Amino acid sequence: MLEVDALSTGYLGEDVIHDIEFRVDDGEAVAIIGSNGAGKTTLFRALCGILPVSGGSIRFADREVTGLPTHRLARAGLAYVPAERHLFPQMTVGENLALGSYPERPDTRVLSMVWSLFPRLAERSRQQAGTMSGGEQQMLAVGRALMSKPRLLMLDEPTTGLAPKLAADAYTALGELRAQGLTLLVTEQQLPLALDLADRGYVLANGRFELEGTCAELEANPEVRRAYLGVA
Amino acid sequence: MTAVILDGLVLGLQFGLLGVGMTLVYGLGGVLNLAHGQIAVFGAIVTSLAMTSGARAFWAALIGVAFAGLVGLLLDRTLMRPVYRREGEERVLLGLLLTLGVGFVIEGLLVWRYPIQQLSLNIGGSAVEILGVRMRTGSLLASVISVAVAVVLVLFFRYTSLGKAVRSVIQDEVGARLVGVNPNAVRSLIFFVSAALAGLVAVTRSMTSPILVTAGVNLTILALIVTVVGGLGSVSGAFLAGLLLGVVHTVSSFLIGSYITTIVLLAAAALTIVLRPAGLLGRPG
Q1: Digit-coded pLDDT (tens) for A159-200
Q2: Which end of chain A is more exposed for a tag (fewer CB within 10 A), N or C?
Q3: Is the Cα dihedral A136, A140, A146, A147 positive or negative?
């Protein structure tokens, strides 16, 4: 689904991400773990074409996509839910979702799937997105991404700013999507949730992958336990 | 007095259309197009030339509006490209300087080639009575066209997926790109529409008073005032501000005289900025 080779990127000519290599297979869920400032968001911004890459290549769905503009990648089935969500604040929940499928008309089956995944959104379909709580906005951001019937859903710290209960709910929803066969790539600082969801994980620090392995391996790794799970 | 206010509303509709074009381009790309009025005059002069060479008024106007739109499109595709590549204040400043220059160039060329050309569409027919007020056919036609275009614009933005895509870029450009909207294509479209609207306003204005080749700067300033009073980037704000300022314009020229009217308009704009820095319907911040 996604193959990244020797990818480097950064801001103003200074690389933040160095020589990263990884892959996500069809139907897999992969977690990228790292603390604040490790480069998770930068990596995702480069993958979806918001940030130009300074080296390396990205292949998506068996196509070379390095340097392709964001809207073309989105139409090709790569959906990205940024941590800042980037919703359309003065539009209703319904309008935000409808735009998710742009330029196609919204698919009613996908829409009812989103409604049943997040009943809260159905209740608030006429509310302005900007007036909703953080948790609801996160649901809407995921819902909007799903409307494009993506082949790969990338989520950058989907639990940022959410209370523990809401964070757990968010991962329950992601688990359901996974069960439906959607390929997922998630970055996270909150390890237990991400490791429960994913098959494999990579640990990102200072713009490089330090560790990789199955989630069970990562969970058992003393470094990971100390740094991310708060276990002494 | 009813007649004066009605006149003001007719004028205000056209101010509104002039302002909407400017506010949309600003909302989408951060460019305050200071050549807006000169593009309008360009459309008017093309219309007038087309009529001189024998075209019927309707077709001539259509050609003029289309040419105005094409100037906008050309501007977006060429000179504005480096502007969009910059961010924040730098983008706004470069946009202001470039469009100011373009305005001078357009007006300079027109004055050089067609110094005495002007557009004045005399719509014949007798006056019509509306709300107990006699209205000239010219101003009636101008308002019918303006209302129709305004309604089409509102419907376009509210109900079509392309219209929603335009709003999405205004509200969150990154979000728009993530759902598959190409902001460059949207900007080109809106630059075209904005410039065509400017041309249309020049054509409808010429139904009540002639558009001279040097009218550009005044129209630009009018559009600026409407845009700022309505709130930068707000479509409904621009319409509201247009109507208000249209009434202020005619009432003050009726009571005080047209010479002072520009000062009254600028004072009204200054007052709005003091009371509501983001404009009537603009969003603070």
Answers
A1: 888 888 888 888 999 999 999 999 999 999 877 888 889 999
A2: C
A3: positive
Total tally of structural domains belonging to chain A: 2
Cα separation, A6 vs A19, in Å, equals 4
Q: Which domain-ending residue is among A105, A123, A149?
A: A149
Per-residue tokens: A42: 């930068």
The ipTM value here is 0.92
CA distances from B98 to B46, B209, B225 (A): 23, 30, 20
SS3 label, residue A216 = helix
For chain B, what are the domain ranges?
A: 20-215
Residue A52 and residue A33 share a domain: yes
pTM for this prediction: 0.89
Pick out chain B residues at pLDDT < 70: 124-125, 283-285
Backbone φ, ψ for residue B163 (5° rounding): -60, -40
For residue A232, the tally of other CB atoms under 10 A from its CB is 4
Q: How far apart are CA A210 and CA B159, in angstroms?
A: 50
Look at residues A131, A149, A167 and tell me which one is the last residue of a structural domain: A149
pLDDT at position A49 over 60: yes
What phi and psi, each to the nearest 5 degrees, are found at residue B217? -60, -45
> How does residue A231 score in pLDDT terms, banded at 50, 70 and 90?
low
Q: Which tokens go with A136?
A: 């609801």
Residue A82 forms part of a structural domain: no
Which residues, listed in sequence order, are joined to residue A208 by a DSSP beta bridge? A205
The residue segments making up the domain with residue A72 are 2-77+150-228
Residues A223 and A118 in one domain: no
Same domain, A109 and A208: no
The C-alpha of A104 sits at a distance from chain B's nearest C-alpha, in angstroms, of: 9
Residues A67 and A160 in one domain: yes
In a domain, A84, yes or no: no
By C-alpha distance, which of A161, A211, A157, A155 is closest to A178? A155
Helices (H), chain B: 2-29, 36-52, 57-77, 80-84, 88-113, 137-159, 161-171, 173-178, 183-205, 216-230, 235-255, 258-275
Facing A89 at nearest CB: one of B161, B171, B179? B171
Cα dihedral A156, A160, A162, A165 sign: positive
Residue of A nearest to B165 (CA): A99
- Is the confidence at residue A148, as pLDDT, over 90? yes
User: Is residue A56 located within the same domain as residue A107?
Assistant: no
**Cα gap B148→B160, rounded to integer Å:** 17
Evaluate whether residue A85 is within a structural domain. no
Contact (CB<8Å) B171/A145: no
Same domain, A142 and A204: no
> What is the distance in angstroms between the Cα of A156 and the nearest Cα belonging to chain B?
13
Among candidates B164, B178, B182 on the partner chain, residue whose Cβ is nearest the Cβ of A86? B178
